């Protein structure tokens, strides 16, 4: 294209030069000028040709350069495509080899399964054949025994006929001597035997009842006394506050921090309340959760010993203490289970047992109470003559009976029912689950272990010194419970039972109908729930009785 442009330019240039030359010839008319003009034109043409040649050479060089660049670019693209094709081929090949290897492994596994199944079938077939042979032998033996019995039956039948004949003969002779028929003699004999048996049976019955009453009371007292005597436990009285002692009151300022930021950070991290008052060399840690209180106490102890007390350090120490506390809880649970020789307990239940160490009920440590109950259950089960397996189950149920009190989730259920659900969820034996749920009579007992756990729980909680509760406040709560029920119309008597866990209400039959009994029970329970404070739950039982009395004069 550049060549054509150049040629066109030369043509135009030639025309211009020609036009100039003609003009000069016409105007000048002089030969010299024409010659000079021709010379200049020749020079111009030569220069133009040289320029055109140079331009054509440059164009050819540029064209060759462009062609060489195009060839190089084409070769690079070709090499890249070849490389991509090779990589894709290698990837597909590797994928194929992997799938092939997996397929081989699967085939081998299937072959092994098939071989195992064939071996199992062979074993089963051999067992079936052996059983069939045994059945054939047994059948032949039974056939022989049957034939022998048939022979003996024939002999017995014949002997019976002979005895019947001799018996009839003897009866006829006796009837002749006694002047009584067979039926009359039989009736007289039966009547005499009956009177004698009734008299002897009444005497035996009276003696058995008397012995049973005496022995039952004595044996029950013996078992309970032996169980209590063999159990001695030490208790740590726990409440809702812990006192942290300080070396000096100067440390209180470090604990509080600038504008109280340290103490706020510690309360936010632990969930416990820290009270810094005028008490010398002491700080009070308050929380209803003993685990939170213990975490706060240990973290505060480490911070004071370290001396570096600031929010970042507080969060770091509390996180470490929480982790160690979780490990300690699991360790306590495992040690408790090992000490009691209980096997196969779910890890979650083991952790819950460890949490009992930091829970108290009326001042009685829950883990100590559960340990004591478990050992009492084992002793009482052994005294009652249960087998070793039942003794172990009783011990297991005694340990887990209050596990609902340390549940990590909030629930409106009682601790007994919640504990039963937790045990069922984590694969405990039905006997143990029933004992846990029934130890406060909230469900029906269906095995011998449940009443043992209930009795041992009462023994552990009722012994002097086990639970710390002010007598006056206890009696006041019981009295308030009874007075509340007596405030309803138609209530004749009210009794608080089981340490205030049950309220039994007796109503007048002429003032309260059967239909109103259910409503009355509900109203009393709602009033207790709204107006009183009590641990656990209170069972309200309303009793209506109709008595008809008459006198015979």
Can you walk me through this structure?
The protein has 4 domains: 2-149, no CATH class; 239-339, 2-Layer Sandwich (Ribosomal Protein S8, Chain: A, domain 1); 341-469, Orthogonal Bundle (Hypothetical protein af1432), CATH 1.10.3210; 471-544, Alpha-Beta Plaits, CATH 3.30.70. The protein contains 15 helices and 8 strands. It has helices spanning 2-28, 31-178, 182-229, 250-256, 261-270, 290-306, 311-339, 347-355, 366-383, 388-400, 415-425, 430-438, 449-462, 471-486, 514-531, and strands at 241-245, 273-275, 282-286, 360-361, 364-365, 491-497, 502-507, 539-544. It has a 3-stranded antiparallel beta sheet, covered by helices on one side. Strand 7 (502-507), helix 15 and strand 8 form a beta-alpha-beta unit. Helix 9 packs across helix 13. The chain is elongated and about 205 Å long. The model is unreliable at 231-238 (pLDDT under 50).
Keywords:
553 residues; Ribosomal Protein S8, Chain: A, domain 1; Hypothetical protein af1432; 4 domains; three-stranded antiparallel sheet; three-stranded mixed sheet; 15 helices; elongated
């Amino acid at each position: 294209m550049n060549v054509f442009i150049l040629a066109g330019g030369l043509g135009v240039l030639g025309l211009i030069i020609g036009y100039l030359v003609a003009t000069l010839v016409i105007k000048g008319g002089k030969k010299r000028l024409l010659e000079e003009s021709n010379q200049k034109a020749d020079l111009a043409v030569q220069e133009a040709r040289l320029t055109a040649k140079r331009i054509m050479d440059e164009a050819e060089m540029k064209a060759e350069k462009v062609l060489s660049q195009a060839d190089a670019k084409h070769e690079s693209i070709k090499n890249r495509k070849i490389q991509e094709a090779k990589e894709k081929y290698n990837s597909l090949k590797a994928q194929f080899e992997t799938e092939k290897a997996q397929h081989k492994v699967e085939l081998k596994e299937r072959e092994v399964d098939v071989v195992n199944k064939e071996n199992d079938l062979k074993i089963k077939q051999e067992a079936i054949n052996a059983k069939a042979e045994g059945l054939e032998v047994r059948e032949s033996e039974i056939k022989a025994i049957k034939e022998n019995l048939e022979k003996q039956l024939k002999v017995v039948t014949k002997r019976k006929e002979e005895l019947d004949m001799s018996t009839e003969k003897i009866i006829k002779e006796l009837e002749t001597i006694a002047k009584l028929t067979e039926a009359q003699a039989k009736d007289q004999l039966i009547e005499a035997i009956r009177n004698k048996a009734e008299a002897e049976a009444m005497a035996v019955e009276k003696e058995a009842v008397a012995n049973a009453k005496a022995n039952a009371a004595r044996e029950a007292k013996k078992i309970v006394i032996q169980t209590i005597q063999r159990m001695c436990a030490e208790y740590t009285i726990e409440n809702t506050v812990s006192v942290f002692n300080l070396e000096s009151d100067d440390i209180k300022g470090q604990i509080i921090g600038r504008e109280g930021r340290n103490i706020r950070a510690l309360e936010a991290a632990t969930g416990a309340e820290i009270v810094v008052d005028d008490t010398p060399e002491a700080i009070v840690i308050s929380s209803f959760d003993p685990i939170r209180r213990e975490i706060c106490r240990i973290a505060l102890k480490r911070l004071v010993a370290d001396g570096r007390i600031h929010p970042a350090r507080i969060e770091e120490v509390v996180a470490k203490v929480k982790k160690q506390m979780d490990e300690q809880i699991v360790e306590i649970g495992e040690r408790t289970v090992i000490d009691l020789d209980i096997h196969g307990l779910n890890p979650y239940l083991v952790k819950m047992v460890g949490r009992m160490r930091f829970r108290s009920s009326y001042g009685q440590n829950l883990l100590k109470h559960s340990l004591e109950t478990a050992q009492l259950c084992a002793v009482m089960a052994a005294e009652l003559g249960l087998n070793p397996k039942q003794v172990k189950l009783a011990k297991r149920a005694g340990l887990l009976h209050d596990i609902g009190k340390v549940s990590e989730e909030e629930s409106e259920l009682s601790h007994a029912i919640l504990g039963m659900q937790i045990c069922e969820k984590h694969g405990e034996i039905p006997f143990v689950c029933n004992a846990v749920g029934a130890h406060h009579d909230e469900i029906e007992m269906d095995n011998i272990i449940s009443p043992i756990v209930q009795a041992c729980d009462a023994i552990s909680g009722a012994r002097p010194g086990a639970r710390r509760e002010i007598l006056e406040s206890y009696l006041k709560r019981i009295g308030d419970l009874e007075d509340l029920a007596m405030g309803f119309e138609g209530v004749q008597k009210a009794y608080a039972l089981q340490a205030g866990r049950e309220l039994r209400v007796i109503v007048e039959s002429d003032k309260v109908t059967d239909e109103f009994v259910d409503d009355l029970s509900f109203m009393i329970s709602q009033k207790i729930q709204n107006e009183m404070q009590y641990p656990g739950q209170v069972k309200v039982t309303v009793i209506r009785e109709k008595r008809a009395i008459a006198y015979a004069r």
